[in-house]
Amino acid sequence: MKLRRLILPALSVAGMGFSVATVRGLMKSEPDRPPATAPARSPFRKTLAGAGLVEPASEFVAVAPQRSGVAVEASPRPGDRVRRGDVLFRLDARAAEAAARVREAELAARRADREARAAEVDRAVAAVAEADARLARVKAAPRAEELPPLEARVAELERWVADDDDRVARAERLLPTGAAVERDVVSARAAAEARRAQLAQAR
Question: Is the dihedral of CA 142, 146, 151, 156 positive or negative?
């Protein structure tokens, strides 16, 4: 019984001592370690420091192309001196070349269309000139020397029309008697109609 009363306080004191020792060990500061490289030191006795921006004497020069693109070549190297007009870099021109070829094809198509329209206009002008010439010939016709043959042709056709009419009348009269058939009447009428058309054209 007495042993238990002694063990529990002894364990408590030992635990407290261990806790205090652990906390004190964690609170110890480590000594400063030397730097890996020595810091830069100014060779001058007096120095002046300040924050700012260093700019070139000629001010900043903005270099940018008129069109965006991928740079495929850069001519100058670091430290090279460049002059006005020197090529600094080249952009990938494949897209621009493709667009130029498309524009050239469109231009060629428009030129071909314009030439086709010009040819159509020329044909229309020629057709109008031909129509004018035919109209002039029609207005000038008939000439005096052309009238006698034409009048003779009309007279001849009139005689033929009269003969055809007589043939139709005879065929119609003979049809009831059986001396003529329906086919003869139809043929005579067709011939008479054709002759009348020729007479109308000649007149």
Answer: negative
Cα angle: 115, vertex 120, 122; to 5 degrees: 95
Q: Which two tokens stand for residue 98?
A: 């493709």
Q: Is the pLDDT of residue 1 over 60?
A: no
As a whole number of angstroms, the distance between CA 161 and CA 154 comes to: 10
Phi and psi at 162, nearest 5°, equal -60, -40
Cβ–Cβ under 8 Å, residues 171 and 182: no
Helix (H) or strand (E) holding 39: none
Instruction: Read off the pTM.
Output: 0.34
How many CA atoms within 13 Å lie on the side-chain side of 93? 6
Indicate left, alpha or beta for 77 from its phi (over 0: left) and psi (-120 to 50: alpha): beta
Summarised one tens digit per residue, pLDDT across range 60-103 is 777 778 888 888 888 888 778 888 888 888 888 888 899 999 99
Pair 162, 192: CB distance under 8 Å: no
How far apart are alpha carbons 56 and 67 in whole angstroms? 27
